[in-house]
Specification:
With 438 residues, the chain is of the alpha+beta class. Helix content is 17%, strand content 30%. The chain is built from 7 helices and 21 strands. The strands form 3 sheets. Strands 7, 8, 9, 10, 11, 12, 13 and 14 form an 8-stranded antiparallel sheet that branches. Strands 2-3-1-4-5-6 form a 6-stranded mixed sheet, sandwiched between helices.
Length: 438
């Protein structure tokens, strides 16, 4: 291991399972692809539901005359909330196994809900795209896969569901996998896994199924438990956006009287006491004296830890500033190129639009200088004649910001490469952007 390759921090730092590794995953699929049933199966088989919940689901299933317990009913409460007009961009579910904790972002897959999928998948480590084995790849399947690659989700699972309805035919599975592999060649997918499942019966969801002797891969849950995500974090480029300056002026403890700490979440790299770091925008360098957390000092900090840095020197630091390595700086510019997903109806994004940009901990005014093209997420066609972006549309734009942003390409760092667009008048989020390489 060379000096410029930091040691990969352990995933479960802390006491017992308190800091057990967390996998964030997003699911996508058409209404009839069995997404709700799959989520229900994972919750049920991991014992993440209460007995009264299960009893209610079993009772409702019997009342409907259904042969099996309809595990999709576990998410019906959220669906009812949507029907009542309650705004829920993404529904989150939580469950855990002895090996790992999971956060599921249940994202709608319809084209009119592109913004919802962008929201749910933007922080995901892994995406599960469900495909109905009877229908094969559809336009929506391709759209979901493209969006996951656009959002740089590191791991993608194509779960070919309802294998029981095609008699667990290996040729059906192989044909869908072959067709998707050809399509994936056009995209940037770093890790792609195919798993044949039946969410209704539980085949290959938690345990390997005897109905698919021709499949020698892991079950879905086994794959989720063992997929390696530690290396997905950027541990090379030190990035620490300052969120808050801590000065406890009223402290009675003499040791805290002169305390000055800079709090924030590590967005990249590994920080240790004694490391030399540079402050942006001033360009001044200093040394880390100590790294504090809510549980006391630590010997190192890495993404996505929230810590407080104490420095050897007094610098003029405020919210929105950033610390980095002296010889590894982010881009510092007021001209930003980004892929933007527009999230509001009735107010299109067009050249001349004025907005607020929220990037890491810095907020600045911005104007849209140019719309280069609008992207058709179904065909990947670039419409260079487009004059605006409407609801759920994606396009490449040029932004001019009133303050320099300390950024990296989204492909290198999803935290320092992502931004949101805000309406100046209402403070509502109207768009999400991914900074491009050039």
């Amino acid at each position: 291991m060379t000096a410029d390759q930091p040691e990969v921090p352990p995933a479960d730092v802390g006491d017992g399972n308190r800091h057990m590794d967390i996998l964030r995953l997003a699911t996508a699929g058409s209404v009839d692809d069995g997404k709700s049933t799959l989520i229900g199966r994972l919750l049920f088989d991991s014992k993440a539901i209460f007995e009264d919940q299960l009893a209610a689901v079993e009772r409702t299933s019997r009342e409907r005359g259904e042969e099996f317990t309809n595990l999709a009913l576990l998410t019906d409460g959220l669906r009812a909330e949507r029907e009542q007009g309650i705004t829920i961009d993404v529904a989150y579910r939580y469950f855990a196994t002895p090996r790992r904790k999971f956060i599921i972002a249940d994202t709608p897959g319809h084209i009119q809900y592109t913004r919802n999928m962008v929201t749910g998948a933007s922080t995901a480590d892994l995406a599960i795209v469900l495909v109905d084995a009877r229908n094969g790849l559809t336009e929506q399947s391709r759209r979901h896969a493209f969006l996951t690659t656009l959002l740089r989700v590191p791991h993608l699972v194509l779960a070919i569901n309802k294998m029981d309805l095609v008699d667990y035919n290996s040729e059906v599975f192989d044909q869908i996998a072959e067709e998707f592999t050809a399509f994936a060649a056009k995209l940037e997918i770093s890790d792609l896994t195919f798993i044949p499942i039946s969410a209704l019966h539980g085949d290959n969801v938690v345990q390997r199924s005897v109905n698919t002797p021709w499949y020698d891969g892991p079950s879905l849950l086994h794959h989720l438990e063992h997929v390696h995500i530690a290396s997905d974090r950027n541990l090379i480029d030190v990035r620490f956006p300052v969120q808050y300056v801590i000065r406890p002026h009223q402290a009675t403890d003499p040791e805290l009287h002169d305390y000055r700490g800079y709090a924030g979440q590590v967005a990249g790299g590994v920080l240790k006491p004694g490391d030399e770091i540079m402050h942006l925008p001033s360009g001044l360098t200093t040394t880390i004296r100590r790294i504090d957390t809510a549980r006391g000092p630590v010997s190192q900090a890495f993404p996505p830890m929230s810590v407080t840095l104490l420095l050897e020197d007094d610098l003029d630091v405020s919210r929105g500033d950033m610390f980095c390595r002296p010889h590894n700086r982010p881009s510092c510019t007021q001209d930003i190129e980004a892929m933007v997903c527009w999230m509001v109806d009735g107010r299109p994004l067009s050249p001349g639009s004025r907005l607020l940009v929220k990037h890491t901990t810095r907020t600045a005014k911005a104007i849209v200088r140019d719309l280069h093209y609008r992207l058709d997420v179904n065909t990947l066609h670039r419409d260079e004649a487009a004059t605006h972006l409407g609801l759920n549309e994606i396009g490449r734009v040029s932004l001019r910001v009133t303050q320099p942003l300390f950024s990296d390409p989204y492909s290198r760092n999803r935290l320092t490469g992502g931004l949101i667009l805000i309406d100046e008048a209402t403070s509502a989020t109207v768009g999400a952007g991914m900074i491009t390489d050039n």
